[in-house]
Design a protein that fits this description.
- The protein has about 100 residues and is mainly α.
- It starts with a helix and ends in a 15-residue tail after the last helix.
Length: about 100
């Protein structure tokens, strides 16, 4: 190794030593965030997604895209949207921008 290579390598180690606490804190935050994301992904896989297939107990049954599952109230998809207060509702209620 030449003198300039040693000097450059020494500067890197010196920088690491000066910033060790910052690097450790960053690694800890990264580990916590990674653990949370991994946990969320595993839970999502374990549950099998967002649809349980039990349309009778699902509030989204009229709007989920399963055309072969009619609304339990006997209504239509449009009626289900109106009941939920979507943009087609003529009276959105207090606090609305319309």
């Amino acid at each position: 190794m030449s003198g300039s290579e040693r000097k450059g390598l020494s500067a890197v180690f010196e920088w690491i030593a000066q910033n060790a606490l910052t690097l450790a804190a960053g690694a800890a935050v990264l580990a916590v965030i990674s653990g949370a994301v991994i946990s969320l992904v595993r839970d999502r896989k374990r549950r099998g997604g967002g649809c349980s297939g039990d349309c009778a107990s699902c509030g989204m049954c009229c709007r989920c895209g399963n055309g072969d599952n009619p609304c339990p109230s006997g209504g239509t998809e449009e009626a289900g949207r109106a009941e939920s207060g979507s943009a087609t509702d003529p009276d959105p209620g207090p606090g609305s921008d319309r």
